[in-house]
Amino acid sequence: MVCILPYSVSAQAFSAHCLVLASLVCPVSDPALLHPIEPVSAALVLAADDPEALAAFYAALVDASPSPGFSTAHWRVLLPGMGWLELYRPSRQRPLAPGRGRLAVCLKRQGDDRALELWMQQALALGAQRLEEPRQESFGCEVWLLDPEGNGLLLLVSAA
To answer: Please, what are the domains in the chain?
Structure first.
């Protein structure tokens, strides 16, 4: 299990806010060396100035309920078919500046350009900002937004 965090944290916070990336399985010739392998899970982790409000934003977009996390600085949203979106307020000792990086949350659902328009309008009404006009791509209709805290958000609808 590999966890990545943007700052140094205590062991308790580390386990609470980690992003599980991969689990490696190496073949071994001696069965005595084999140990049960824990199942792998994955989550997206977003730093937020107001994790509760940002959790409410994402929960509304996926018709879910935000859940309190391991502390008052941690909230969670179960993304259908994707796992958890973990939202946390960074430590005051190690703040993270808000802004769009190269990583973005992509929310997908079935539909057409009209469905994307309605979903985009919902996101805008909840505080998102549109970066580009919606466009048709070979894989579906998409629009790039910023969530209320300036993180990249891609809404994507496709026929299948």
So the answer is: 1-97 (3.30.720.120), 98-160 (3.10.180.10)
